[in-house]
Amino acid sequence: MRTTKLLATAGLLGASALTALLGAGTAFAGSGDSGSSGDDKAPTEAGTSFRTAQEVKQGQQATAGASTGDYLYWSFPADAGQRPTVKATVKLPDSAARPSGATWRIDVYDGLRRRQSCMYGTQSRATAPDTTTVGLSCTLRTVRAWSEQWANDPLPGTYYVRLTAATLTPSDQGLPVSAEVEVTSKDVGGSSAVDGTLAAPLVPGSTTKEAAAASDDGSDEENGSSAGQALATGEPEDGWSSGWWSDRWVWTAAGGILAALAGIGGYALTRGTGRPSRVPPGM
Fold this sequence. Notes:
Layout: H1 2-31, E1 54-55, E2 61-67, E3 72-78, E4 82-91, E5 103-109, E6 115-116, E7 118-120, E8 124-126, E9 133-140, E10 157-167, E11 176-187, E12 206-208, H2 209-216, E13 229-231, H3 248-270
Parallel strand pairs: 1-3
Antiparallel strand pairs: 2-11, 3-10, 4-9, 4-11, 5-6, 5-8, 5-10, 7-9, 12-13
Helix pairs in contact: 1-3
């Protein structure tokens, strides 16, 4: 009876601890969601350089009107444990004024402006004479909380999307097109967790949109107005995660509880019932 009570108590304690850990994991996973709220409006234009890239949140669909030959830039935040997927759709003009043999391409760069490779997806596509829309996609590798200095791994911070027509003939330039870009991500979780975190996310510094536009125009005038300053960080709504939490904590704790229960059960089975009554105490 004593062994049964001991095992039952240990089982209840283990189940309670595991339930608490699973609840905490769900709360932390929910706090790391970087989806957009319904009140935020998606941008309806695109930047023409890294410094003027339009910020878009994950889950939003950004649109822009442009001309063939333009470079279109957007930026979005990506946190540790996420696997972002960028999808772009280009709507071409009618067949009478359609670019012939144009190749559209989408590229993704991190906060250090290093081009990131795609795990899978159609990163570039050539248009056919009867093509009306061009669909592109790029799924990045999982964003790591920390990496070696020599590595080119995706790290938490701001990412840039560049959409352009890679090959055009002179007669094809300047034709009107419309573009749609959407960024989503999958939370991979502890299967890609690493030990260590960055001191700060890879994001651009504090700047002003007016100063960025003046710099692109070649103007040297300084804008000292603090009211116009904006942190072009593209920070998620709930802030950057510290990188310390992953579902590995849940599985580690569950493994420890199961190991403790196995130890208690093994001891209860092997310790026996004590000295037999037929054996004298002195022996």
